[in-house]
């Protein structure tokens, strides 16, 4: 569906514009020929008419099929002759504008088609090798912003030329009406708006280029120097030397995330330090749970990405690819928050950006799987196959327990333990680890690579599964864990406390930001809002119209009597039937109008910050039971839909009063529907936009108040702090 939409925007619409240009060019050519013919006719007709006028000014002549006095004919032709020069000059401009529409349309379609085909071809080429992937992706991300800006600008120019053409087409011989001038002014303003779009598009070039530029990777942790982590640095350098890999320039230790290396820029929080070069991220919890051989296998796996043919891929391609993906996510958020003009200008580029990334997904996933298997082999080379296999099992089997423990301790970040690692290790040690078969089929999370399932990776190492699993799920001994960390860091307890404090501070700040947003929504409405139809005027009109129909019905049914018409039986039946039909319509209009008047001021929906009360409710409906609210305008009616939360009980409604707007429950769809002819608050009619904003304000307020009440419930870790 996305590809069809892109094809329509980038190719079909420009072709349609080019077709409009062909049509306009044909019209312009015909009009120029008609004006030339008219000029010849006027030049030959005027002397003849003047000769006739010299003989008799009262002579009647035929002018374009109309018989007029000869002097009037001369006057009209002279005025037309005076206007002819201006009209011909304007007509002469129109073929050029039509040609511009055709040219811009065809060129835009070719650019759009070329961009689509080139991107698709690049995606196929990228599957040949990692070098091809790097080359075509790098070239594409540099060229595409200019292609998109050119496409949108040329489209706007084509539309502007077409609109200006139509504005000039309104100019004609004879007296110009005020409507003609208004039409020309409107079309001219529309053309200027298109030209303004071109200018705005050129200004957006920087924003579009930023879509395809990498952004730094946000990491929560601490950079450790060789003085702070002598054992870890020695361990890592020895592994790099054994593998012939490039050692990292930086090591970042965090409480969350997994083991990974990256050559992208890394923004380390909360220190707000940007690292450039090769960075190794080490999760403190998993580093502690692994023995030295297992950590060597895992770190060796990561360093394998900086060895051999994988070096260029890791150093040059992945930072760009991951950065572009993060940039597109950020652009999507900014588009949602932007004004309508910027959204309109940026959406085609954003959609094409997604298409561009999706075209490379298959190649990226393919090479990621290949390189992960190769990196596992590097890890096995560094620390042995048995350690590589048991490390996979230990990380996978302990991940859920680690996450559950951290989530529990961070329910209230302010009261979280000062030493989070010790608390988590004690929790994990208190329960035996397990490795069920479904966990073997899952992949370990990674911020940039697509890992194969754990079972596939163990099989690739040619290891007996049972033995590997038993080693990986061995009991956790807190004393051994702490001793392991002491061997890596100069002051492990201080580092543990520092990382715990950073995590607490991050979550406290996140919670405060969320609470602030929720409170702003909760305070956005105050008191109840009574929504009523207020269709009194519509009711009066319908009632009067109904009376008119009833009068017509009486005339139809009895008119033959007082008009002394002699009607046969068949005609009489037709009159009676017509009267009955018209009378039924009139009666319905009269009753409908009366009901509108009767219930004009009665509330169809009462909204409070916590509940909704419909006219046929048996009990208030908590807003927290709703999943969404929407508004659709159908003709002269408002259709309001409330979608129920999957876990919410179905509300009960009583029968609606005839003619009174009430709720209707669709049980299968779990949806409540309210139809209103109009929407008013205290007698003031609401537009669709204001009504939607009012509904959204109360919905958001109810959801926010419920969330604030449940705030003490367990919370999820932030995106940057999900244990891997």
Automatic annotation (TrEMBL):
<protein>
    <submittedName>
        <fullName>M48 family metalloprotease</fullName>
    </submittedName>
</protein>
<keyword id="KW-1133">Transmembrane helix</keyword>
<dbReference type="GO" id="GO:0005886">
    <property type="term" value="C:plasma membrane"/>
</dbReference>
<feature type="domain" description="Peptidase M48">
    <location>
        <begin position="288"/>
        <end position="461"/>
    </location>
</feature>
<dbReference type="GO" id="GO:0046872">
    <property type="term" value="F:metal ion binding"/>
</dbReference>
<keyword id="KW-0472">Membrane</keyword>
<keyword id="KW-0482">Metalloprotease</keyword>
<keyword id="KW-0378">Hydrolase</keyword>
<feature type="transmembrane region" description="Helical">
    <location>
        <begin position="184"/>
        <end position="202"/>
    </location>
</feature>
<dbReference type="InterPro" id="IPR050083">
    <property type="entry name" value="HtpX_protease"/>
</dbReference>
<dbReference type="GO" id="GO:0006508">
    <property type="term" value="P:proteolysis"/>
</dbReference>
<feature type="transmembrane region" description="Helical">
    <location>
        <begin position="572"/>
        <end position="591"/>
    </location>
</feature>
<keyword id="KW-0645">Protease</keyword>
<dbReference type="Pfam" id="PF01435">
    <property type="entry name" value="Peptidase_M48"/>
</dbReference>
<dbReference type="InterPro" id="IPR001915">
    <property type="entry name" value="Peptidase_M48"/>
</dbReference>
<feature type="transmembrane region" description="Helical">
    <location>
        <begin position="101"/>
        <end position="122"/>
    </location>
</feature>
<keyword id="KW-0812">Transmembrane</keyword>
<feature type="transmembrane region" description="Helical">
    <location>
        <begin position="143"/>
        <end position="164"/>
    </location>
</feature>
<feature type="transmembrane region" description="Helical">
    <location>
        <begin position="540"/>
        <end position="560"/>
    </location>
</feature>
<dbReference type="GO" id="GO:0004222">
    <property type="term" value="F:metalloendopeptidase activity"/>
</dbReference>
<keyword id="KW-1003">Cell membrane</keyword>
<keyword id="KW-0479">Metal-binding</keyword>
<keyword id="KW-0862">Zinc</keyword>
